[in-house]
């Protein structure tokens, strides 16, 4: 099953479009066993309310890819979840290929790449490996942080048509052209989600990070066209992570496919 089909299937089974960002603050390297246990416990507690887990350097750096994170990836799979590596691949093609091969070998279903590197000797080797292994590639389109506009929001000249357009619009068109499995647009910029959704339609699902801790809301992201919500610290640092994850899941996935309910909360609305 392709990554996209796997996500859709898991979303249906779990009745959740929430992607857990399994991120924790810095721990002294000598405490990494505790970090592993904390991550594993949180994953087991929260898994009924999410459809996928997104890993980042927060765990790959202290735990390592093949004797730490791969075990968590396996646990996530055993719990019926999809896994995404948020490595924002951003190098030359030959290096990208090796990065992708290692992360896919560790069991990840998809990885995130940065389209600033372009296609030939940039993204292409990643897409080639992903196609060969039946895995996914998700592209950054507009990031969630304050300075995102400095790069993703620049006005560029389309080399093919000579027309002026915003960088993120060009990236969204390329995501469609290259058959990306997902497009990332920050929940902190719902108007950008709307614009990108108009380009992508239902062909490439939008993944939206930046909810809660970064100031974005689930309601605005969903209303603008996001399919999946990526949530990290609001869940991982919560007093009661499972209850928080359930609350976000229940808000974003109302019964009978209705509109997100009107429960008011800084994080949701
Ligand atoms: P929080 O704690 O803010 O964590 O919910 C968000 C997670 O998502 C990552 N992040 C992004 N990843 N494009 C990405 O690929 C983005 O625009 C983006 N914004 C946040 C962040 O590193 C953390 O893991």
Description of the molecule:
Strands 1-2-3-4-5-8-9-10 form an eight-stranded parallel β-barrel, surrounded by nine helices. Helix 9 (190-200) packs parallel to helix 10 (218-224). It is an alpha/beta fold and 269 residues long. Helix content is 47%, strand content 16%. The mean pLDDT is 95.
Total of helices = 12
What proportion strand? 15-25%
Q: If you average the pLDDT, what whole number results?
A: 95
Radius of gyration: 18 Å
Structural class label: alpha/beta
Looking across the biggest beta sheet, what order are the strands in? 1-2-3-4-5-8-9-10
Distance between the termini: 34 Å
* Annotation, overall tally of beta strands: 10
Catalogue the ligands: xanthosine-5'-monophosphate
SSE pattern, N- to C-terminal:
HEHEHHEHEHEHEEHEHEHEHH
Helix content: 40-55%
Low-confidence stretches: none
Describe the largest sheet: 8 strands, parallel, barrel
Shape: globular
Question: What's the gist of this structure?
Answer:
The chain is of the alpha/beta class. The protein has 12 helices and 10 strands. It has an 8-stranded parallel beta barrel with strand order 1-2-3-4-5-8-9-10, surrounded by 9 helices. A two-stranded antiparallel ribbon has the order 6-7.
Keywords, please?
12 helices; binds xanthosine-5'-monophosphate; 47% helix; 269 residues; eight-stranded parallel β-barrel; single chain; two-stranded antiparallel sheet; alpha/beta; 10 strands
Itemize the secondary structure elements and their pairings:
Layout (H helix, E strand, L loop, with lengths): L2 H12 L3 E4 L10 H15 L5 E4 L1 H7 L1 H14 L3 E8 L3 H13 L4 E4 L5 H15 L2 E7 L5 H5 L2 E3 L6 E3 H12 L3 E4 L4 H11 L5 E3 L9 H7 L3 E4 L1 H4 L4 H12 L17
Parallel strand pairs: 1-2, 1-10, 2-3, 3-4, 4-5, 5-8, 8-9, 9-10
Antiparallel strand pairs: 6-7
Helix pairs in contact: 2-4, 3-4, 5-6, 8-9, 9-10
The structure holds xanthosine-5'-monophosphate.
């Amino acid at each position: 099953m392709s990554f996209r089909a796997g996500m859709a299937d898991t979303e249906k089974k779990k009745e959740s479009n929430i992607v857990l960002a399994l991120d924790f603050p810095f721990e002294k390297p000598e405490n990494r066993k505790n970090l592993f246990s904390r991550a594993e416990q949180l994953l087991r507690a929260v898994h009924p309310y999410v459809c996928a887990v997104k890993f980042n350097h927060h765990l790959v750096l202290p735990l390592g890819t093949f004797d730490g994170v791969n075990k968590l990836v396996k646990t996530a799979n055993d719990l019926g979840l999809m896994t995404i590596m948020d490595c924002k691949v951003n190098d030359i093609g030959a290096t990208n290929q090796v990065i992708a091969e290692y992360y896919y070998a560790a069991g990840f279903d998809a990885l995130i790449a940065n389209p600033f590197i372009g296609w030939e000797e940039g993204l292409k080797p990643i897409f080639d490996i992903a196609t060969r292994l039946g895995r996914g590639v998700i592209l950054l389109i507009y990031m969630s942080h304050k300075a995102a506009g400095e790069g993703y929001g620049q006005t560029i000249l389309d080399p093919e048509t000579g027309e002026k357009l915003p960088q993120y619009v060009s990236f969204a068109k390329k995501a469609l052209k290259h058959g990306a499995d997902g497009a990332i647009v920050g929940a902190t910029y719902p108007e950008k989600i709307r614009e990108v959704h108009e380009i992508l339609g239902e062909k490439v699902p939008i993944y939206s990070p930046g909810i809660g801790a970064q100031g974005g809301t689930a309601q605005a992201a969903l209303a603008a066209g996001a399919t999946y919500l990526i949530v990290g610290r609001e869940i991982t640092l919560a007093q009661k992570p499972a209850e928080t994850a359930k609350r976000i899941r229940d808000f974003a996935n109302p019964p009978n496919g209705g509109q997100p309910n009107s429960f008011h909360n800084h994080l949701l609305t």
